[in-house]
Amino acid sequence: xxxxxxxxxxxxxxxxxxxxxxxxxxxxxxxxxxxxxxxxxxxxxxxxxxxxxxxxxxxxxxxxxxxxxxxxxxxxxxxxxxxxxxxxxxxxxxxxxxxxxxxxxxxxxxxxxxxxxxxxxxxxxxxxxxxxxxxxxxxxxxxxxxxxxxxxxxxxxxxxxxxxxxxxxxxxxxxxxxxxxxxxxxxxxxxxxxxxxxxxxxxxxxxxxxxxxxxxxxxx
Length: 220
Prior knowledge:
By secondary structure, the protein is α+β, with helices and mostly antiparallel strands. The protein has 2 domains: 4-26 and 55-105 and 197-219, no CATH class; 107-187, no CATH class. It has helices at residues 4-26, 106-113, 168-181; strands at residues 57-71, 74-89, 92-105, 118-123, 126-135, 138-151, 154-163, 184-187, 195-202, 206-219. It has a 5-stranded antiparallel β-sheet with strand order 1-2-3-10-9. A hairpin with a 2-residue loop joins strand 1 and strand 2 (74-89). The radius of gyration is 23 Å and the shape is elongated. The protein starts with a helix and ends with a strand. The model is unreliable at 20-45 (pLDDT under 50).
């Protein structure tokens, strides 16, 4: 999943912030003069900052639901994002608390894992893994099903069954090497400080990822 989640996070935040600014602008009465900028405001818990620099925008809360999001890093489905205490500055964005859910299609996830791996739903909340490999001079197709979890920010697929499509004796002799090929521990890299993968499950369409964080900063 490497930079897919970072691409999604950045794209969603830009859309969310843009939507929030449009909503705030649309709420102004037609023909009414914009309110004079306030130099200071009470710093209530969860409320606006005491002051804003020129060009900064603060949003108390933002929400976005989209059936599909396409970023330069890849596609996502059924995206749901919510954030509070969002500050837009010339240097980027800061979000007090952020929650992001999205489905990463299997094909997109497999491309990030690399190695010619194929990922798919195997039923009962399990993921299926298939890949071609050379083991001890033999070209084999390794198939496995396993549990999926988020461990220390990693996407982990731990095989429960491994099949080489051959006699049991041969499979047993090669099973340890084959298991390593279909055990996936993929670090989610590139996420900003304060944001981490906390849960991942398998759906018919891909991996359903949940990310949460506080004091999340994204540089422009």
